[in-house]
Every structure is written in structure tokens, then in C-alpha cells.
Amino acid sequence: MVLRYYIGALVLLVSFLAPKGVSSNSNAIIPSTNVITEEPEFTDVIENVTVPAGRNVKLACSVKNLGSYKVAWMHFEQSAILTVHNHVITRNPRISVTHDKHDKFKTWFLHIANVQEEDKGRYMCQINTVTAKTQFGYVHVVVPPNIDDSLSSSDIIVRENSNVTLKCRAHGSPHPTIKWKRDDNSKININRSTSVYDWDGEMLEITKISRLDMGAYLCIASNTVPPSVSKRIKVSVDFSPMLQIPHQLVGVPLNFNVTLECFTEAHPTSLNYWTREDGHMIHDSKKYKTEQSVGVPSYRTHMRLTIYNVQHSDYGTVKCVAKNPRGETDGTIRLYLSTPPTNSPASTVENFKDWSDIRSDIIANNTIINGQIHSNSVHVSEKNIKHISNINDIDRFEQKSSEKKLNWPIEESKADSVNKIQNVILGMILFLGLMIQQRIISI
Predict the structure, then answer these.
(1) Gap between the Cα atoms of 243 and 241, Å rounded
(2) Among the four 138, 171, 203, 350, which has the fewest Cβ within 10 Å?
(3) Could you tell me which of 246, 248, 245 has the C-alpha nearest to residue 369?
(4) Neighbour order of strands in the sheet with 366-369
């Protein structure tokens, strides 16, 4: 069957390539008739066509005075004969040919169904005259962009301060352009000195990536053919835990409640818990309540420990601990006995007052202990080596907490206070007696 197809195609090609009036058995030109006829001519140009991939396209070749000559269609770039007269030569099932018999100037239509990118190029319409007559039309196939996942980056996890390269490859016609943006529309930190809202190019390189660069990045491919397409790449930055302790020394009276706080940063998410001075973990009970809430960004956590009805056994050291696969850290809070404020009624076991509320009225951002101001600090502990760092400035890994001494008035004894009051009353009595004596004398 295949052999018969090729034999038939060969016969058609021979009949097309042998012009009328030329014998195939000799080199002599033998007139086929004594009647002089006009040679065929093209009556119109072939229109260039731009078509999106997947659509159908039709090319028209109009010829007059065709007579017994034949019209053929060819794909010039592929050097492929597609059709001859009413016959399809190519085995491409998407190619077909039709012509309008009733048209004064016969028009031969080449049909291409479901156009693909490989169909682009020049198409030649040819008449098999002695000197072949040809004309060309161009088919431009446009293809929407498509991102090649196999050649593009997927979600990645990297260590903090390492260099990261994201790749995004796309194809289409015309060739797509690539733009990078962050999913939350924040800036892309290319390096310590360059930050941009978008970046052009197939490669996005970030130098010394920080936890602040963690998040989703969008690779957007576009050309003149809608729609544009995008790929979402999630970048996770791993780092060992860091702690921030607002108040390292906390004073609380007996029988009061107190809430201690720690702030952690870690990725992957750390295991957070509290321990007593002896290392035993603190669990929720009538005595203790532990809470933690996820902050923004999600690698931040707020830890809280509430101690109810503080007794002598509660004073001492409490630790907040954070662990993840990258390391661990802990911070110490010392709880000490203090006297209740004089303007508040003494608390009882039956009616506890939250000392955290009282302290918030006395101290703002500093902790006052025994006449000293202790500023807030951040603790990072790794392999039992402790550093003090500012959580808002990751590049600054060490700073010393400042301390200022205040001159507090020396407390007066109760006896001195009574003596002063007695002296004041005695002075008032003497003054009153003198006034009365002067009044009597004047009378």
C-alpha cells in the first residue's frame, strides 16, 4: 500500500514537472498544437498570514489562463512538495487543497489545520510552465509563552548567608521575556547594596540570602501573544534559633501573678518550652500557664509564661528554650522578691493582682531593679556560647546592654517621721499661743 502511494506521487510529480509541449522521450520541443494560447499568470499576490498556534489557516493562489498546466504548493524552508493540482502529496494529515472551479480566475487554496510552530515559513505556489512561475506567501505562527518546568527552578531550602540562583526558562513565538517579582510585592534584595521591585532575565541571583528574603518569588513569562504565564517558586531560608527577652530581671511581690515573655526567630519552626532552674520542663497546671503565638513573618513566635500566686519557691531563674535542626538557644529570666506599690491595697491569696499590670505602669522599655535600669536585650545561644544581638538588624551580632544607676532617696525610719510630725504640731501650738497673747494685750 505504501509502495503504491509513492508510485502514484511519483507519477504526479513527473506529470507536473514535464511542461506541456515538451516530450519526455526526446530532447526536441514538439509543439502540442498550432493554436497559440496565452501563458498562465498569477492574478493576485499571496497574502502573508499571522496565526496563533492551534488555529486553521488558508492560503490562496489565483491563476488565469491555466489551461492544461497544473498548480503545486510547496513549503520552501522544508523543501517539501505539499500538493499538485487536486492531489495531496505530503503525508501530513493537516494539509488539504481545494479550488474554485466557477471562479473566472481559478483560485487554489492550501489549507493547514491546527497550525503548529513548525508550520511557519514561506509557502510557494508554482505553475509548471516551461520556465516555472512561482510566488510566495509567508505564514507566521505565534505561540503564547510556556514555562518549561524541567529547566526551571522548583521550591528550594537554603542556609542563611548562602548564595542562591533561581532559573526560569520559557519558550514561545516570539521568544518570551522573563521578569521576576516577589509574591508579596516587597523588594528583591539582590545583594547588600541593591534592592529592586522586579528583575529581568532568566536567572535571578541573590548574594548572601537573609531570612528577610524568605518567601515566594514569581517568574513571569510574556510575549506579544496573550496570555502571560507565571511560576511560583518558594524560597525557604534555614537558620538556628534566636531569642529576644524584653525583661531579664523581673521583680514581683508575694501572692501576685506575673507573666514572663520571650520572642523567638527560627526556621524550620523551633520547639519552644520553659524550664525551671533545675532544668525541669514547665507544663500547664494551676500554677503555670504557657502560651505561644505565631508572628509576622511566620518564623517569629511570641512565648509567654504566667505564674500564679508567686511564692518564695518561685523566685530564681526561669529559662525559655528554642530548638530546631539547625541549633538551639536559651535565655534566662531571673525572678526576685519586691515590695508591692504603696498606692495599691495589699494583695491576698483569695484575690491576686497581676503584677505585670503594675510593672507596666512603672517601667516602659527598661526594667528597674534595685535602683538600676536594665535595657532590653536579645540573646542568641549556640553551643553554650551566648551573644547579644538586635533582632531588627541581623548583621549586628553583638552589643552590650547599658546600665544606668539612679540615686534613690534613703528610706527614713518611722521614728524620724513621728518626731517631725510632733515638732510641726508643737510649733503650731506655740504660734497660736503667741497670737492669743498679743490679742489680749491689745485689748
Answers:
(1) 7
(2) 350
(3) 248
(4) 366-369, 372-375, 403-405
Separation between Cα atoms, residue 372 and residue 381, nearest integer Å: 25
Residue whose entry in the numeric block shows the C-alpha cell 537558620: 239
Retrieve residue 47's grid coordinates.
497574502
pLDDT confidence band for 68 (50 / 70 / 90):
confident
Its pTM surpasses 0.90: no
What pLDDT score does 245 carry? 96
Nearest to 154 by CA among 50, 72, 236: 236
Amino acid at 232: R
Pairwise CA distance, residues 172 & 401, whole Å: 59
Beta-carbon-side half-sphere exposure of residue 314 (alpha carbons within 13 Å): 24
Q: Checking phi first, is residue 281 left (phi over 0); if not, alpha (psi -120 to 50) or beta?
A: beta
CB atoms within 10 A of CB 65: 14
Find out whether 127 and 70 touch, Cβ atoms under 8 Å.
Answer: yes
pLDDT tier at 198, thresholds 50, 70, 90? very high
The candidate with the shortest Cα–Cα distance to 156, out of 237, 77, 270, is 237
The DSSP output letter for 276 is E
Q: Distance of alpha carbon 280 from its chain centroid, rounded?
A: 41
Evaluate if residue 408 carries a pLDDT over 50: no
CA-to-CA distance for 61 and 126, rounded, in angstroms?
Answer: 9
CA pair distance 297, 147, nearest whole angstrom: 30
